[in-house]
Amino acid sequence: MQVYDAPLRDMRFVLDELHQDDGFSNIPALAEFTPDLTHAVLDEAAKFAREVILPINREGDEEGCVLENGVVRTPKGFKEAYVTYVEGGWQGLAASPQWGGQGLPEAVHMLVEEMLCAANVSFSLYPGLTHGATTCIDGHASDALKQAYLPKMVSGEWAGTMCLTEPHCGTDLGLLRTKAEPQADGSYKLTGNKIFISAGEHDLTTNIIHLVLARLPDAPKGSRGISLFLVPKFLPKEDGSLGPRNGVQCTAIEHKMGIKASATCQMSFDEATGWLVGEPHQGLAAMFTMMNTERVGVGIQGLGIGEAAYQSAVWYAKDRLQGRALSGAKRPDLAADPIIVHPDVRRMLMTMRAYNEGCRALGAWVSRALDAEHHSEEPEVRERAADFTALMTPVVKALFTDLGTESANLAVQCYGGHGYIRDSGVEQYARDARITMIYEGTNGVQALDLVGRKMPANMGRALRSFFHPVSSFIAENGGEGPLQPMIKGLEKAFGALQLASAHIAQAGLADPEEAGAAASDYLRLLGLVAMGYCFAKAAKIVMGRLAAGAGGDAGFYDAKLKTAQFFFARILPQAGGLLMAIKAGKASLMALDEAAF
Ligand SMILES: Cc1cc2nc3c(=O)[nH]c(=O)nc-3n(C[C@H](O)[C@H](O)[C@H](O)COP(=O)(O)OP(=O)(O)OC[C@H]3O[C@@H](n4cnc5c(N)ncnc54)[C@H](O)[C@@H]3O)c2cc1C
């Protein structure tokens, strides 16, 4: 059964208690967003997730999207849910007030996103892409384009997409062929075919605004010759009302493994009118504004699905009666004990729980840094925050989706054979989660971004923005006391990360394939250390609160501490194995002759 209630207490913990000392606080522009206000927003979002989009998650998966006469019909209930979403003002939650948004901190927005993704990831994709597109337009488009498009996109009246992928061109965008011909009036005519375009066509909004990568006639070859264009489905008139249909159509929708209620479209551009966004040939850099927003957003999809899968597994583990506890019957009144008594079932539940809490805590740290990067008045804080978010963007995308997919699979395992049967609802999580490791740049490509770009940038400055708080925390909290097992564990894993970083810097300089061979293991290692740091900080806070008498929160704090202890005992020790794999280098990967495969 699909069970989901937003983990509001943990969300308030990561928002208000965990990261207060990270140097990203005290931003005057965000001072009006008091805990009272942000908690009210989270409560309302939890209600929307539970009451409006969770109930249409299973049905949406069964029904899927349908293409009829060039129009995509979303499953029953999606249109009504979208209207409720727009009326609630959710689309503009984190958007600039200049365009009608509410300007809430990213730290709050990310938690709301997690709820939407947990309740119905297919639904979340439609507004998620619009949010990414508005960020890109706001950052790079002309004032005229901003005025014409942003208010309607920020309100949710119009939706957005990102159109990068072509049949022969996925990861390697330098291969793309869609053409853009300049017109006398300053517009362009775009011609080409895009595939796999999420929300390329649907019935939720009156207009859809495509952000399209294409080549100008004089474009240099490769990724340096790519420009970005805004191409609306309907061309707006001067007064903002809808004008004629543009030359862009959905020619087919993909039949796929999961996220079936999200329309994945093949799009044909036939002399479609568009306008340049940003500078000619600088399209990829402009598109990266959207891609970075989406990458963090996709990481949050992984976390959301992981949380929903966990809650559904807990529900089943308490309900399903099989066998007896190894230590003797726990429920002799029943025919058998609930499976939650078995250590192996506990292993699965605790793993999911630790992944979710660790990712939520790390995600909150990154989103606070995003807020500081955008709003801090101090240039050095903005720079440090930008370094940190650049470093962590591929980590959030790849680690959270790897772990979310693992959690979804563990949930299926908790259900046994029933998990494999559609009626249980949990196999949908495994199918839905699987795409998150692939789109927005595969997780392998995220790892290459981390070791190839983010690590060496500015002589390792981004890496230092992360290493510094971790090493300071370890140094400040050494000595005696109950926190020490965690400090020791963190120190050991951090030592492994430092050795791995030095190894990659050295070996990768001599041979780039060495860095490529180490990349995925390195991303996992860095992500685990970051989660370990968050758990150790959380444990320190929690121990203090419990010692002071936590009242009604004692249960929450006690569970947090036990989850942190599990993470340090059973998950963080993987750091040692990852270091060994990294140091083993490329030899065993590349030894087998291609012909022997
Ligand atoms: C459901 C769905 C929705 C999508 N939504 C959108 C969308 O809205 N907009 C859009 O533009 N695209 C979208 N995509 C496309 C998606 O982003 C791409 O599928 C993805 O980036 C990978 O490209 P590809 O499928 O061509 O794989 P390829 O690039 O062919 O990669 C195949 C494999 O090779 C690896 N690989 C490739 N190059 C390298 C390299 N240099 N080094 C190491 N490994 C490498 C990859 O990691 C992968 O494992 C969507 C895809 C799907 C399935």
Keywords:
seven-stranded mixed beta sheet, 11 strands, 597 residues, 18 helices, 11% strand, globular, alpha+beta, binds flavin-adenine dinucleotide, two-stranded antiparallel ribbon
- Rg (CA only): 24 Å
Helix content: 55-70%
> What is the first-to-last residue Cα distance?
42 Å
Structural class: alpha+beta
Spell the H/E element sequence. HHHEEHHHEEEEEEEEEHHHHHHHHHHHH
Instruction: Give the percentage of residues in beta strands.
Output: 5-15%
Unreliable stretches: none
Counted by DSSP, the helix tally is 18
Task: Write a structural description.
This protein is α+β, with helices and mostly antiparallel strands and 597 residues long. Helices cover 57% and strands 11% of the residues. It is built from 18 helices and eleven strands. Strands 3, 4, 5, 6, 7, 10 and 11 form a seven-stranded mixed sheet that branches. A two-stranded antiparallel sheet has the order 1-2. Helix 2 crosses helix 5, helix 9 runs antiparallel to helix 12 and helix 14 packs antiparallel against helix 15. The longest helix has 37 residues. It is globular, with a radius of gyration of 24 Å. It starts with 7 loop residues before the first helix and ends in a 7-residue tail after the last helix. The mean pLDDT is 96. Bound molecules: flavin-adenine dinucleotide. The site of flavin-adenine dinucleotide has 20 residues, from strand 3, strand 5 and helix 12. Flavin-adenine dinucleotide (FAD) binds next to strand 3, strand 5 and helix 12.
